[in-house]
Each structure stands twice: as structure tokens, then as C-alpha cells.
Amino acid sequence: MFKLNINNITDKPTIAIFTKGASTDLKYFGESKSGTWKVDPNKEYDKVIIYHRNEIANTNTIYAADFIRTEEANDSRSTIIFNNVEKVETTDSSWFDFTGNKSSNPIKYFNI
Predict the structure, then answer these.
(1) Separation of alpha carbons 76 and 42, rounded Å
(2) What does each of the 112 residues of the chain score in pLDDT, given as a tens digit?
(3) Can you give the pTM of this predicted structure?
(4) Of 37, 54, 55, 74, which is most buried with the most CB atoms under 10 A?
(5) Quick check: 79 and 38 in contact, CB under 8 A?
């Protein structure tokens, strides 16, 4: 594993999501879905970066995908729909190091 930063992955408008995977449905073929998140409806992005924290294996796996759309869920939250999922790398970078931000917010926007 190595240190990885989101700027090494894409320069396109991006939403990054921190997840432990419970509600995230990742598929290498077809549409994938995130859990439900409070997202800014005024932001537009092309890419989705998933930072998947596996606490049992003590690993952080990074996936990149193409944004398709958001779907309204409940409680002012949305599900993010994406496809073309690719595993980028496994990293020992924390969420904070990966996103370059000390906030604990599980949603980050880049290049917007």
C-alpha cells in the first residue's frame, strides 16, 4: 500500500464518498449505487471516487467511476448512481490525507 491523494486520480469535477460499504452497491458492469447522502444539488460532477474503508481487513480501497445521476431518497438525502467502476488502488492514506481536508464529512467535492 502507498499514500494516495485524490489529485493523483482525476482533474475532472468529482464527488468523493467515504464508505464502510454497508449501503454501497459496487458493480464493475452496469449501474452502481451509493448509500444515501446529503449532497449539494447545485454542484455538478463527472466522476465519483469511492473510498471504501474495510475495518476488518484494515484496508482502504479506492474506486473511480463515471457519474450518471442522483436519485432523491428520504430525509433530504440522495443516492448517487454511477457506472464504469474501476479499482484504482489500495492505500494506507487516511480519508483526511486522501482528500487533503481535516473535516470528517463523508462527502467531498473536487475541481468544482
Answers:
(1) 14
(2) 445 566 667 778 899 999 987 778 888 888 999 989 999 888 889 999 999 998 888 889 999 999 999 998 888 899 999 999 999 999 888 888 888 876 778 998 888 5
(3) 0.86
(4) 37
(5) no
